[in-house]
Amino acid sequence: MAATTHAILVLLLGLVAAAVESFDYSAALDKTLLFLEAQRSGKLPPTQRVKWRGNSGLGDGYSQGVNLVGGYYDAGDHVKFGLPMAYSVTMLSWAAIDFKEDFIKLNQMGHVLEAIKWGTDYFIKCHPQQNVLWGQVGDGVSDHYCWQRAEDMTTSRTAYKLDAEHPGSDLAGETAAALAAASLAFKPYDSAYSNLLLVHAKQIFSFADRFRGLFSDSIGNSKQFYTSSGYYDELLWGATWLHRATNDEYYLKYVVDNCAAFGGTGWAVKEFSWDNKYAGMLLEGRAGSYASTLQQYQAKADYFTCACMQKNDGYNVKLTHGGLIYVREWNNLQYSASASFLLTVYSDYLTTAKKSVQCPDGLIQPQQILNFAKSQADYILGKNPKSLSYLVGYGQSYPIHVHHRGASIAPVSILHASVGCVEGFETWYKRNEANPNVIHGALVGGPNANDEFTDDRSVYDQTEPTLSGTAPLVGVFTRLHILSSSPYHKPQGPPSQHYAPVPQPKAAPAVPVEFLHSITNSWMVGSEKYYRHKVVVKNISEKPIGGLKLQLEGLTGSLWGLNPTQAKNTYELPQWIQTLQPNSECSFVYIQGLLIFLFVSINGVPLAESSTLGAGYISRLLEIQDRERAPPSVQVAAAHTALNRLIPSHSSSFQWGGPLPQTWLDQQLEMQKRILDRMYEFEMNPVLPAFSGNVPAALTRVYPSAEITRLGNWFTVRSDPKWCCTYLLDATDPLFVEIGRAFITQQLAEYGKTSHIYNCDTFDENTPPVADPEYISSLAAAIYKGMESGDDDAVWLMQGWLFTDDPFWKPPQMKALLHSVPLGKLVVLDLFAEVKPVWATSEQFYGVPYIWCMLHNFAGNIEMYGFVDSVGSGPIDARLSENSTMATPLTQISVGVGMSMEGIEQNPAVYDLMSEMAFRWDRVDVTTWIATYVQRRYGKLVPSIQDAWKILHQTLYNCTDGLMDKNRDVVVSFPEFTLYFFPTAITRSASPKPCDVVDLTRQALAKYANHLFVEVPIREVICGSVRRLSRKFLGLVDDPWLESAKNLAQDDQQRKQVRILVPTSFITMFNLRIEWNARTQITMWFDNTDDEANLHRDYGNKYWSGMLHLHGYYDLLQVHDTESGERGGFRDERVEEGVDQANKRVAERRRRVLHQ
Question: What sequence ranges are listed for the domain Carbohydrate binding (predicted)?
């Protein structure tokens, strides 16, 4: 009995000891992530949780012509050292990859990815050109002479770069590794950003390998802070990560081929850190034919493991008496943290492979390796001779005099005055009190070789934290928490906005529905913060649910996806979801500003309640004009909205069929929001507009000192200024950036989300006023700055149409425009590449990424034509061309191919082929493709149809003449008497053999109309023939188009606004201005005459569609059927007088319509 009691007592004591020694690794993880936020440089995001920090380093790089804002401060100072920062991002990314499921379980993946992205966004900025990498911002020497907050910095912010003449293979190789690893981390969440990181990683690695050297030789003032021991390991390290990210054998072969020369299989190592990566190259699982060489690489990991665990035949890593890995006097804990991380990862690798490590002094199992890694983490958290946590903010006892400038000085919110260099030392550095700000998660330098520690700011080797020290612990703590039995610990602070779902109170088991709520976006407007919320409603019961009602109390913003009911604040599912089936779900989205309470009921029975915190919603558009003196903004009618930007804002909107009724504008806005929501649901990236500089003329009166220029004529009407000339705000004017920022901000507030891609075409079909390349460069730089000021992640998507034919854009002007924007922040659409590929004549847009686009259709022309042979080969030729930038996604846009047509629902074969080109890697044999396409299209093989399509391929679909507008049939030609004398100009193509009934029937009828038209006697007028043939012709083109257009009006406001009286000789009344727009679409949308513009020219070559019989305006074809004329043409004076009168009536009608 005594023995049993003793055994129980021992067991209980063991349990008590275990409880004392256990640590909350999840809480420790929270702290480490907070430290990363405390080290942020640049403009802090709305989700920043470390509130004593503020914006800093906002001018980094600008004095040297580059934007280097962002990134992380290295330690307790304010220098941004590239090598340790890149290593830290690699460690974070490695953890996010290998411990992905662990992070998700802890609801921390969002914070980890944000921490990675804060670094990778900065690295992208550091790589503006292929062989340039900015490696450091700030001077360590001068920085150490000052003790200031980052927000008060007065020290040098000089930036230092690596290039071909100043190489740095170690820094560049580590940066390539960081970007490659980060691309893997982001791949499941943001494939476009992942691709962008990978492109930069490849280019930076190529730069590192081609131009070899130590970064400290090129950036001299870094030597006393971070002196690299060599660059071979970083080259191997970068190739290792690129192989893992791309699975490209080139990088694996690089590692194998250089194994001996670069020390990968020769040198023994007892350190893994920012300076030495040899032990971390774990590639055996990818060995294949290189197995023997890669096993030698793994031998380094084995050697390191044995050395750490004191089983290496005396060649061991030094341990302190308390069991801590000890490598160096200065900031030793960073080496312990890195070793702990690598051993944690390696133990997982060995466990998966069911292997162990054979050391000189015995066999080591994976669990023993993990236990040793855990011992290092536990030492850091307090299991040490001092019983002190070296992770600041964790536990009951931790360092309070941390050598960190920001933490040791009162924050700006309390101490509003700036702190000077000397003042900081005298007032804050030397004070005995604890730091006013707790820098949670900072891993200090730690104890010396005897486990002794002095908590004093002046003992910087022990009390200064580093980025590279804390970063490896993120993975260690995550893994240890999952493997331990510690309770679940929710993360501190607000949820991550991009990736992590917001935790919701769980409903009782009896509730048949659950709600998954997430914040999908957030933004700032002024000092206010806004959120876009998405709520997924899921039926978790085993029965269908009907009559579901949701009551939203306190909703102040917009709501999509639910229908309002007659009951106050009560909503129901959309009509198409009457019943929610078991395990099915639906979702709704809202913008919210106050606390919202959600009550749920099924058939009137309340179920559950939850609350979420949102933000306000602003629903107003940017208005910068003199409301009293200026005319209203030109709201052109529907016929002209496509060219609204080019229509002069100083003219009356009535001249252009406007103004548009407010109901129409509201409907369009609502439709836009629904379209955007649907695009985001399909994971598409909508492109939103940015401010292009086009402004109302009234702005010249509101801002008389602003640099505003009237541009030249854009297809004016008889040179009348009321019909021409837009106004452009000079992009170098400070007002430009102000409006650009407001434009993006208000748009974001209106739509609630952005893909960060914006189109802006300031000089599309308008020429800059000055050809000086410096001026053009300043314009483009300011345009992008306007975007970036409203969205830090903005990417400019620009049409390349301006380069197609305009002789203004010579190489110096093109380069000035294209190179004025940071690399990766501008993408060009090669808009008409199937006919006029600009990439081929501009050296791949002079190195700027572009998208090969097929334009094909102008203004909705429905004529059958195409360039299928060009489409089937052009994108491939561009991608495979030398130095192609089409195949290099330097931005978050997946660069490749696109379609930029001005009309749809025509020529499906052309668009089917172009759609396939996005997935093809080789040129298409179009003849074979046509044969298979026809069989797919009709569901069976019909020889006669195959023959017909061969003809179509050889004729209509192989138009190699480069013409844009193919349709010149009489039914779309300008109706005037001169047509009677030039019939051959409109009969250039023969009737094709019909296949698709509708298209080819229309095509055949159009050609038949040409035939009827030609048959009208010209030399000898026979009135009966004219009347008979004219009636046949008019019968072909009659159509209910106008009547259909009238039915588009949806309310009295639209109907009232568009009623216009016209002469009764033509028609008693235009029912709607919509009808006016329908007529305008096919009579005056565009004019391209060289001498004097004419109001009746159809750019889109529309079919006349009912215009002929309806008015008598086009009945001039029948005016002469009762008149006699002279031989050789209509020479009778009475006929000519009638024609003149008809023309006058036409002119009077036009004048009246335009001024209603």
Answer: 513-593
Residue reference for tokens 């008497």: 977
The single residue of 78, 200, 243, 403 carrying the catalytic annotation is 403
Active site residue 403: yes
Contact assessment for residue 496 and residue 45, using Cβ atoms and an 8 Å cutoff? no
Q: Is 103 helix (H, G, I), strand (E, B) or coil?
A: helix
Q: Which DSSP string do the residues of 218-231 spell out, in sequence order?
A: HSGGGTTT---S-S
Task: Give the pair of three-digit tokens for residue 427.
Answer: 């007032």
Place of tokens 């606004």: 1057
What separation in angstroms does the CA of 1045 have from each of 161, 665, 668, 971, 1070?
62, 18, 17, 20, 11
Half-sphere exposure of 969 (CA within 13 A, CB side): 28
Phi–psi pair at 618, nearest 5 degrees: -105, 125
DSSP state of 133: E
Other C-beta atoms lying within 10 Å of the C-beta of residue 666? 10
Instruction: Identify residue 541 by its one-letter amino acid code.
Output: S
CA dist 461 and 331 (Å) reads: 5
Residue type, 361: D
Alpha carbons within 13 angstroms on the beta-carbon side of residue 909 total: 29
Q: Judge contact between 917 and 898, C-beta under 8 A.
A: no
**Structure pTM?**
0.51
Q: What residues contact 1072, with CB distance under 8 A and at least 6 apart?
A: 1045, 1046, 1048, 1049, 1054, 1055, 1058, 1059
Structure tokens at 925: 């044999």
Q: What is the pLDDT of residues 312-335, one digit of tens each?
A: 988 999 999 999 999 998 899 999
Assigned token pair, 1057? 């606004």
**1060 conformational bin, left if phi > 0, alpha if psi -120 to 50, beta if neither:** beta
- pLDDT block averages, 10 residues each, the chain of length 1156: 36 35 87 96 92 91 88 94 96 95 90 95 92 92 86 89 94 96 91 86 94 91 85 93 91 88 80 90 68 81 93 92 93 95 94 92 93 95 95 95 93 84 87 93 95 94 95 95 58 38 37 68 58 77 79 68 78 77 80 47 39 23 32 52 54 53 74 84 83 78 77 59 70 81 82 85 78 85 86 89 87 90 87 90 89 83 83 89 69 66 82 86 88 83 83 80 55 42 29 48 63 50 53 54 57 48 29 54 46 47 48 37 34 44 48 42
DSSP conformation letters of 629-642: TSPPP----GGGGG
**Phi, psi dihedrals of residue 131, rounded to the nearest 5°:** -110, 40
Q: Which of 836, 752, 1143, 862 is nearest to 976 (CA)?
A: 1143
Q: Name 821's Cβ contacts closer than 8 Å, sequence gap at least 6.
A: 780, 781, 784, 796
CB-CB contact of 179 with 87 (8 Å) = no
Parallel, antiparallel, or unpaired for β 595-602 and 528-539? unpaired
Residue 590 pairs with which residues in a beta bridge?
533, 559
Paired with 131 in beta bridges are none
659 cis-preceded (ω within 30 degrees of 0): yes
